[in-house]
Amino acid sequence: MKWKKFKVKTITDAEDIIISTLYDIGLEGAQIEDKVPLTALEKEQMFVDILPQGPEDDGIAYLSFFVEEQDDGSLVLRDETVDEAAILERVHGELEALREFCDIGEGTVTVDETEDIDWINNWKQYFHQFYIDDILVIPSWEDVKGEDQNRMVLHIDPGTAFGTGMHETTQLCVRQLRKYMTPGAKVLDVGTGSGILSILSLMFGAGHAFGTDLDECAVEAVAENCRANGIDPARFEMLIGNIITDRGVQNQAGYGQYDIVVANILADVLVSLTPVVKNHLKPGGLYITSGIIDDKEETVAEAVKAAGFQVLEVNHQGEWVSVTARLAVC
User: Are 252 and 239 in contact (CB under 8 A)?
Assistant: First the structure.
């Protein structure tokens, strides 16, 4: 199938009202392109490997809307068969009406045709099997070769959740989990994403993992990856919510019962997270962190010490840092 893309050039202040207005005429699922910096809240909630460093905000925004093109070249909008000219006329009419009472910038519209794209799965062409030390990480659409049959194999499809294991921060955590894992250990994985760290923890000998994430896509990704690796779902609980601020999430995770907490998230989030997760660890429990750019190493290390942890190791890979610490035994 093919799609018609209607792309509106506007300003960032008008994004919401244009999206809402065009939604009312049947254009949904807007793709937003702008250079607006992340807010403090967005940074806090980004349980991801890398914090994007974008260019300076110029106030310009592009909003793209996609309409499926039928075999005869017609378009369907709210169950009505229309053509490109009809949609353009409606869009221009709505934009001109908005212009009467608010600034929408240039307000121009361009139309392109795009081939059939599976936006959810298109990333697969870039993800192929690789190794973390002697562990083979392989997606479902590739086969384990003969020479790898005796390796530890992790089958991972990140889908729409973060985490393939290719990034340095993930690999730093994997090595520390493997080094410090004890049989039957209980692991809390904050910002679990695709579930890679929890699943490997269970493969390394952990007895149970509890993962939290802010993105609901993580639930399906974790379930699929558990199935792919033969992990009993009863051994890996998954909860959507912010463990830093949500007392309900904290209560469900449970207090004073984890042997290891692992958090591969941003340094600024780790500073807020650290005094919270100490309440979930057993005395003497381990805290494995990464997602720390090298110039934030001291910030995280000081936060860890201030929360009552003893820093055991600081490891580097590329420009990224992992801090491993032990909670003091009272």
Answer: yes
